[in-house]
Amino acid sequence: MPPESRSTSSFAIEVPSALIARARAGERAAFEQVYRWFERPVFTLALRICGDREEASEVLQDTMLRVIDRIGHFRGDSPFWGWLRQIAVNEALMRLRRAKQQPDGLDLDVHEPADDHAPPPPAAADAAALQRALATLPASTRSVLWLYHAEGYTHEEIATLMERTASFSKSQLARGTRRLRLLLEPDTRSIQESAHA
Question: 105-197: what CATH class?
């Protein structure tokens, strides 16, 4: 289980079993409700992993089509949101692989000491600054940061999803966090300086 200090996934939406049953029966209104509830979390996850709004829109559409196609396979032994999130992650990572954005500059299976419980960079509260900084990172590094900090995946789970090793995930997290801190600290310093002026 991820540490309690880690962010709760934006996917953590309790979906009534009656709504799932209606969707399984092919009821369009039920699918529309599921779409509305999960549109923003899927799009945000896809944007963070793919780094492009158009790609994120395509991941959203592919994810929802796959949910419609596979809802009969959902057994209910885990939360529906976790099942849907797994589909979204798989779709986003598959799109990255197809685009051959891996390997990239930081994709080395080198173990680097990482403080797994370190909070995201200090300016993370500023969503626009964070988005700009994330966009400068290689796709795999950005993906590890988002899956670990925002979605609460463990290094072992990320390694499985990305077909890599846990040490790869740890090194990407360490390097990505360090890089984000460098990119965001000037913003933090200027905010602090203006507050003391």
Answer: mainly alpha
